[in-house]
Amino acid sequence: MRKHLTFDLTNRQSTSETVEGNDLARAGRWLIAKNLLDAGAATLDPLSPEAPMIFSAGPLAGTNFSNANRLSVGCKSPLTGGIKEANSGGTFAFAMGQMEISTITFNGAFDDWTVIRMTKEGDITYEDAAPYMGKSNFEAAGMLNEKYGAKTSYALCGPVGEYLGLMAAIAFPDPEGDPTRFAARGGVGAVMGSKKIKAIVIDTVKMPSFVDRKGVMKSVKEYGGKLGEEAAIKTFSDYGTAIVADLTNKIGGLPVNNFSMGQQVNSKEQTFEMGGTFIHDLNKSRGGETTHACMPGCLIRCSNNFHGEDGESITAPLEYETIGLMGTNCGLTHPDQVARVNQIANDLGIDTIEAGCTIGVLMEAGEGEFGDEAFMVQVLEDMRAGNEKGRLYAQGTQRVGEHFKVARIPTIKKQGVSAYDPRVIEVTGISMMLTAQGADHTAGNQPGFPCKDKTTEDLAIVSMDSQMNCAAADSLGLCIFGRSVTETNSQLIVDALNAALGTSLVPDFVAELGIEALKMEDQFNRDAGFTAADDELPDFFNTEPLAPTNKTNRHQVAELHAIRESWWG
Question: What is the per-residue pLDDT for 139?
């Protein structure tokens, strides 16, 4: 049994509703899509007080079940105009679970900037946010940690979110208390800013109550054991997400210089310094932390703490998406460079995917040179200052590209494309085209799937299966990096849920949950006015062969939609 809290921010009031059983099993993306549809949010201005913002934790949050403490943040995206679920690690979902809170819905907006404080005693207070305004994320987080103590977690709106920049994210603390985990995509930080919520601070308490605690602990142990048996999991544990760069560079699907090339290093005699193998060895030689958990209980530990030549931390974490978009896509060639700009982005509380795509477009426009780290720093500092240039840049790739009349703008549904060129990494490209979430790889990523001699139908079915599984994981609060275990062990997952909630769910529940979420998200976007044209790739993906493979996109939206309709049944 948990609580769904609903805030009326305009009147500084809140109500609590009990959630249990089957209803508690449907969380995250599923719950966000259902509640946003019910609220009629598709036709609302996403930055208006009437537009809801939803935080949802999974039914196993608050435990040490590996991968089960992910947080879903949902709203109508001010960046895309469609539905958005932005997923994050950190300690906030863990704290929600320990406070026995399943969901928090925010309606309305405060008159002035406010910190919402929720305590283990059940008290909710509204505190003046003035001391934190205009502060960088690291400074504001330090102040929150000092005031409220270590046994709390927070959600933080950064300086770009304060002026409603559309690449603004929401920051959450890692287990050490630093604001390095983000619900990043779709402008969710701007929605938090529109409601004038500077921060939300909640207590961590103790393991939440369950119907069959012993059964839950049995599932925790079994799931963890299966993770330890998976070779793919071990690779991520050893090298982190940065290892994906080695793959995408090898197959020619890495974004380089605003998606104009698919490979940065193409000779065996050259060292690919932006790859996970090089980064791991360099970081280890400097005394850095090569494996790090982004959330309590995680056994995969696919993050890192990247150190510089002096042995001191430059940034944490240095992840693949940042390497691909703020790194190679902008012409950077060494991880130290990416780490430095990543740390500034974290301090600003912005989406590094959107930032990297935007800066790549600026370089394409001739505003800066590819590989010019100093130019990147200036762009980020303009965003920090909130000056005229910075506010333009903060509106993201599509709007900046249109402003500078750039031909190659890498977006789908006005959101920057993730670090997988769809001309080569075709299944992920199809997922980014079809998902209601915009160009979001987490909706159905298959970077290593062999595409040669496969038809559009073959690949679209792989994409839809992946989208279903990712939507199910996001609806249960599970990290998708455990997919090799989660997707093949539905019985284990429902056994854990049944022990926790006293339900009688069957294995088919997991897939059905994912399909239902996808259908509701699609319905939301259609209600918001989206058409098939919104799923198209930018034309340069169709017309410009990508070196070194010389591939162009070969999948058309009309055929993809027909395959999806058939797959849905």
Answer: 98
